[in-house]
Design a protein that fits this description.
Order of helices and strands: EEEEEEEEEEEEEEE
Radius of gyration: 17 Å
Largest sheet: 15 strands, antiparallel
Structural class: mainly beta
Shape: globular
Strand content: over 45%
Amino acid sequence: MRYLLPDQPYEIPLAAGTLHYDPPAGVVEHWRLSSALDGYRFFRLDLDRRPAGGGSLLAHLLLDEQGRVENLRWRAFGPGLRARGKVLVEEAAVTVIREVNGRHVEDERAAASAPIFLPTAAGCTLLRPWAGRGPQTGLTFDLSPADLERSESGFASLDVICTCALRTVGEGRRELTVSWRPPAGGAEETVVLALEDPHAVVTAARWDSGLQAAAGQTVRYRRSGRRGDASA
């Protein structure tokens, strides 16, 4: 797994895993969750489309005690693509900054409490704190795990109306259904995620568009930071 920022000495690893997409075959998403200080957590994501001839997306997120994003940094690169950006959540506003192939854009949102997520299998788990709260105005990005290079708007940040529903399907297993659409209308996207406790490890995802992802190896760590158990 590739990182934007290396592990810090005070981090304690909690869980990690890989997800294999089909279609397109060969695309792999790696993710890793670790605890930081004062109840905060780091969430790292690496979406690798190189085996399918595409680009890559790396993301580093700081989550608060409730699992909400406070800081997001990302970088995307591939054939003809060099992009990077960050989302800064402050008390009164959310600032979104991005640079795509040398073009710099910065804008600000007023709702600092809005849900923020990435529209990938692991990235959609970031919406779990809003499950059952009704429609929320959230923030995501114009990208697809099936085709990172498709974004005509250059990874523009999108204001979306998102809804989340969480239900128990077995002991230690839950199903999270996430939907989002532009506020002014347009196509809605829906993803159903299979989660396992602890740490809401995502084991499978399916989009209404037909895109699917299934877990390869998942790892849970003991509180000491040593590997606890792994399952293929």
